[in-house]
Amino acid sequence: MTVFLFIVILALLVFSHELGHFSVAKFFDIRVDEFGLGFPPRLWARKRGETEYSLNLLPIGGFVKIFGETPDDESLRGPDRARSLVAKPRLVQAAVLVAGVAANFLLAWLLLSLGYLFGLPTPVSEIGLTDRQSATKLLIVSLSPDSPAAGAGLKAGDELVALARADKPGAPQPVLTPEQVQSFVARTGERPLVVHYRRGAVFKQTDLPTQTVTLTPVAGLVADRPAIGIAMDQIAISRKNLPAAIGSGLVLAGRLSLATVRSLGQLFAELGAGKNVLNYVTGPVGLVGLVGDASSLGWIYLLSFTAFISINLMIINLIPFPALDGGRLLFLLIEKIKGSMISPKIANAVNLAGFVLLIALMLLVTYGDLTRLF
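-> structure tokens emitted (374 positions)
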């Protein structure tokens, strides 16, 4: 079921991205030869007008064949050259290229707006006065790698219920705020403590069993006190009316985009410093597991996670690297500066080399996923 959900989510993300390219190309009367979902071998195809629509066997992507996207003699000098992408003004070419990532942003905006409309897990500090909200829960929102909490098996999304000293009998102390957890851990010091928590769709069920795990805080994770390596927040389900949901969805999509850019910049900085960043990068195999985790928490979490992936796909595609939309935009900028086209042979060769490097990178990341899995 998890693999099926992953394929559906991937198909939705790819479809929206390619639909953006397709729609803007059609708007500017650029010939589109094929719209394909998945990669060959082909399972089904039908031609409507000048465009062939295909469904392919490998559900790991999709494509739109836009006439003149890869310049050749036909697109440069053939009878239909006026409808070639390469023959259009550079602003039109840029619009076609940007349309894919814009579609990914619009999809994320739509999904997040739906989330707010039906009820989205939101930090209590960000819930508006007019919002309807559920009871507040103290949830783990992230864990430090190799921390006591991660080593003990705690996960993001777990609800913290109570804490107790492992070496002292007595009732566990309920915790409702991050400050209460931090204070208890600081008083415990580097001695074992018992964490009482709930795992699952905590906002949909009230009879989830409480589980326990024993761990020992360590020094060095934060300044001046022992810690177990978690970030927490008070979360409630926030429901908004339609106009507020649309506005909040747009704001959250923008914030996630900026956060993704910052995270990607930090990743490249660490890579430039010679650090191993494979542990921070997730490929298709790792995403299958994350989709399973999100779906186990409820469909709203899966909706939000899909929006997050869509934004990541948008940002990655804007990187000025050959074979990505950002690389093609860089070529257009170079052509604008130099006042003439880049040689088609050079452009096609660079894009092919970029594509090969991307495949190699995907294989490397997939290897990292597999090593973590097994």
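The CA atoms of residues 36 and 63 lie 5 Å apart.
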